[in-house]
Design brief:
The structure is a homodimer. By secondary structure, chain A is α/β, with parallel strands linked by helices. Chain A is 45% helix and 15% strand. The first copy, chain A, has 14 helices and twelve strands. In chain A, the strands form two sheets. In chain A, strands 2-1-3-4-5-11 form a six-stranded parallel β-sheet, with helices on both faces. In chain A, strands 7-6-8-9-10-12 form a six-stranded mixed β-sheet, sandwiched between helices.
Chain lengths: 344, 344
DNA sequence: ATGAAAGCGCTAACAA
DNA sequence: TTGTTAGCGCTTTCAT
């Protein structure tokens, strides 16, 4: 019914010029307070709202940022997203969201499409497929266009931009070390994200810890898959080969599956086997036993990424001044590593 | 570096008029194929991409929809979101997302802000606070502005628009009936979402089932909270009062918490107590024992909502032709209700 | 203190 | 077949 009103209509109604209205609404010193009053009053009465599109077209700023998320069902990404949204809202930015579902093609087309003035900058996480194809030209094109870009979580050295990540190697190292200090002699490694560089880094951290403490890496105790399908079988096979007393899984659901397999074999967590997971999601808190896990501070990652991007957009930071922020992780101790006795 | 090129620049470079370029690029029959060729070639070479903003300003269509989500960390909403995104992408729409965090104020301000031409329509889920305040004028204002609106999951009768929901009463009724048929004599009801109308409906369905089968409703067996904080205590109190043999929880984490409480009292699920949850999220599959649960088909809800909205936007459906789609639910049977013997 | 006019990038009705 | 012009809603010189 009420359909929005324009500056032009206000001008006509009040018998003044369009520019007078514009200036009045923007509190220009040029306009008499009396005219301002009248105009503002009329505007308010008729619920005048400036047309964002016209504004954006004018000043080449949309106050909108593009968010690229590989998989919104992943709780970690949902956390990052909520961090981004918090800062974006606070600073008056809207978000256009694209879920790539780990597809290279989707990633390329949406980013190309958005990078024509629709958004002021991107916050993106590289999709699995892109990572495997190692094709990053679309990101570099974005950068060439002088569109600010912040990459989070999964990054790549051939893209020169702001980055917000965690130290995967170190985090995995510490988790593994924790298990060793806890007394575990045979520690397995389980990953269902071998397709991601972060997955590989975590494997690296695991090996590094073992080596550092003089334990030989037994490849038969490392399960490195790119998806979850075969997981149950592989874990069973591994347990047939050797009965481990500690497991480090690189994602949450792998830990849940490991627990189920162990239980089905009559083994108890943590009494027979201690487990540490990665990513402190909903599962970690609620499975039985609650999972000791590496917390990634997803919300924090999102917040930092958004702040950085907006600072770039608003020129508070020079476009070429790129930085890689490493967000700390923490080990949250829960019952999956709570034996009554703790050897060394 | 390459900064985007405009139609005007193409025109200048090729010594033709702006409109010729525009027409050529849009494959107008008015332009000679030779000129078209030249123009398109030049455009491609210089990576011309039309400015969406200018287009939107022109034809008053943004090809963008606004998505209002109360809480993105809630897996059900993440599912709905992914359903929306699937259809939106497929039909060439972008999404501007707003997470209200259950806040009335956030909901009002974002929707007001977006409803000025920035988006072509809304898909929204009413926030908890809004529901409690019972203030829905902002939705009606949207509708008055002739902006298409589709509400999902949490709706209200005083807002006259398209809706996509589930039948909460019926779903709860069936879940409760399942427990009775399964042999449960004392069935408890646990809710931590009493602040939502959907929560109340589910309680209603529970009672309806009991009554229908001649079981008297014992209020002391119903726990109806608006948050999760006190849950563990309340469940313990309830179990002190009476040892139930069946529990119907209206959300997923309540079920997980109930299982933890039962286990801590030395009770086993499903042998001592059978449990059915609501919303088939990540938890349901992975907790021990896996949870029998009412699946809500979140993705489907999102898809239907998006299709409906886009049909409205594109005028395939009359603006005032509102419809409420009721998406069926299903009971997924898992181990939390798998006693060896089944009476009745 | 107010207004006319140009322009942001593009489309479309109308001329030529 | 091509070009001129006006206009989408708004800002911003530059007159007046």
């Amino acid at each position: 019914m009420s359909k929005r009103i324009t500056i032009k209509q206000i001008a006509a109604a009040l018998h003044v010029s369009i520019s007078t209205v514009s200036k009045a609404l923007n509190d220009s010193y040029e306009i008499s307070s009396e005219t301002k009053r009248k105009i503002k009053e009329y505007a308010k009465k008729h619920k005048y709202k400036p047309n964002t599109l016209a504004l954006s077209l004018q000043n080449k700023k949309t106050k909108t940022i593009g968010i690229i998320i590989p998989d919104i069902l992943n709780h970690f990404f949902a956390r990052v997203f909520s961090g981004i949204e918090k800062v974006a809202t606070q600073k008056g930015y809207n978000m256009i969201t694209c879920i790539t579902n780990e597809s290279y093609h989707k990633e390329v087309t949406t980013m190309e499409m958005l990078d024509n003035g629709s958004i002021d900058g991107f916050i993106a996480c590289i999709s699995e497929e892109t990572l495997n194809l190692e094709k990053f030209e679309h990101f570099n094109r974005i950068i060439d266009n002088k569109t600010p870009l912040v990459l989070y979580d999964r990054v790549h050295k051939s893209i020169d931009c702001d980055k917000v990540v965690i130290d995967n190697i170190k985090s995995a190292y510490k988790a593994t070390r924790y298990l060793m200090r806890y007394g575990c002699k045979n520690i397995a490694f389980i990953s269902s994200i071998e397709g991601l560089n972060v997955g590989k880094f975590r494997a690296e951290g695991y090996k590094k810890a073992l080596t550092k403490y003089g334990v030989k890496v037994d490849e038969k105790l490392t399960i490195r898959l790119t998806k979850k399908e075969e997981l149950t079988n592989k874990i069973n096979e591994m347990l047939d080969y050797k009965l481990v007393d500690g497991i480090f899984t690189v994602d949450e659901s792998s830990a849940a599956i490991a627990i189920q397999v162990l239980n089905s074999r009559g083994l108890s967590v943590p009494d027979d086997v201690a487990i540490i997971g990665f990513t402190n999601g909903i599962l970690s808190k609620h499975i039985t036993p609650p999972l000791t896990t590496v917390n990634q501070f997803g919300t924090k990652i999102g917040e930092i990424a958004a702040s950085r991007l907006i600072d770039k957009i608003e020129g508070k930071i020079d476009f070429d001044d790129n930085k890689t922020e490493i967000i700390r992780t923490e080990l949250i101790e829960r019952s999956s590593t709570k034996k009554a006795f703790i050897k060394f």
